[in-house]
Design a protein that fits this description.
This protein has 249 residues and is α+β, with helices and mostly antiparallel strands. Helix content is 55%, strand content 24%.
Length: 249
């Protein structure tokens, strides 16, 4: 519309110069267009709008993608990305129940809640600040809380999935307070140091040897019981045959 007005002004420049009223009208048209455009806000796809009013502050009602009407010069719309975000931290240190330090590579997938995006804006303004201030820190806090209940062998061994489940549950509630939905927390790698890992490996080998010995004992016992049953069967059969023998036979 502004382009059309400008073109019209170029074509009729001489007439406009000779007629001040037309210049005033053109100015009023441009001002009206500016006012109308100030009343409209467009929220792009995969984002939500958080409305901040200079009179009422931050609104708790977020705006979905599309066109929305706002109060000009009073309301301002801030866009927040609602696609799934990802953060990976290496060397996250946690302490175990038996006072051992373990380093982990932790991956977190999260998404700003469409309904509670205003919390993200009020607390951190941008997604970058959110990621910097709470995503990694909250993940480490949750891991510390859970890992303090387990020894290092549990963390490196069969209790790992249980630890992950508990950590995800704690982190989910921590993020909800900030207006964020947790999608998943995964542990990509765990490093307890060479000495601890060798001790665990040796223990695993010893445990396997014990299991193998028990299996061999069970096998030998089964074989002996089988032979005994066979021998008893043969003895009973011979006894029956002997009983059937007569002097004549």
């Amino acid at each position: 519309i502004l382009f059309m007005v400008g073109s019209f002004y170029d074509l009729e420049e001489e007439k406009f110069n000779n007629n001040p009223n037309k210049l005033i009208i053109a100015g009023l048209i441009c001002f009206a267009i500016f006012i109308v455009s100030s009343c409209v806000a467009v929220v792009p796809a995969n984002t939500v709008g958080v409305k901040y009013s200079s009179l009422n502050g931050t609104s708790e009602k977020t705006l979905n993608e599309g066109i929305h009407f706002v109060t000009p010069f009073v309301d301002k719309i801030y866009e927040i990305d609602t696609t799934i975000q990802e953060r990976t931290d290496e060397g996250v240190s946690v302490q175990t129940k038996d006072a051992q330090w373990v380093k982990m590579e932790v991956n977190v997938k999260y998404q700003v809640s469409k309904e509670n995006a205003f919390k993200v804006y009020k607390g951190y303004k941008t997604l970058s600040n959110l990621n910097k201030n709470i995503i990694g820190n909250y993940a480490q806090d949750a891991l510390n809380e859970v890992c303090s209940e387990y020894n290092v062998i549990d963390i490196l061994g069969e209790k790992r999935n249980e630890i992950l489940m508990k950590t995800n549950e704690i982190l989910k509630h921590k993020y909800l307070v900030e207006g964020v939905d947790l999608k998943s927390l995964t542990i990509k790698d765990v490093d307890a140091g060479e000495a601890i890992e060798k001790a665990i490996q040796d223990e695993a080998v010893a445990k396997k040897a014990v299991e193998t010995a028990k299996q061999n004992q069970e096998k030998a016992k089964t074989e002996a019981e089988t032979k005994l049953i066979q021998a008893e069967g043969e003895a009973k059969a011979n006894a029956v045959k002997t009983k059937e023998l007569t002097d004549k036979i």
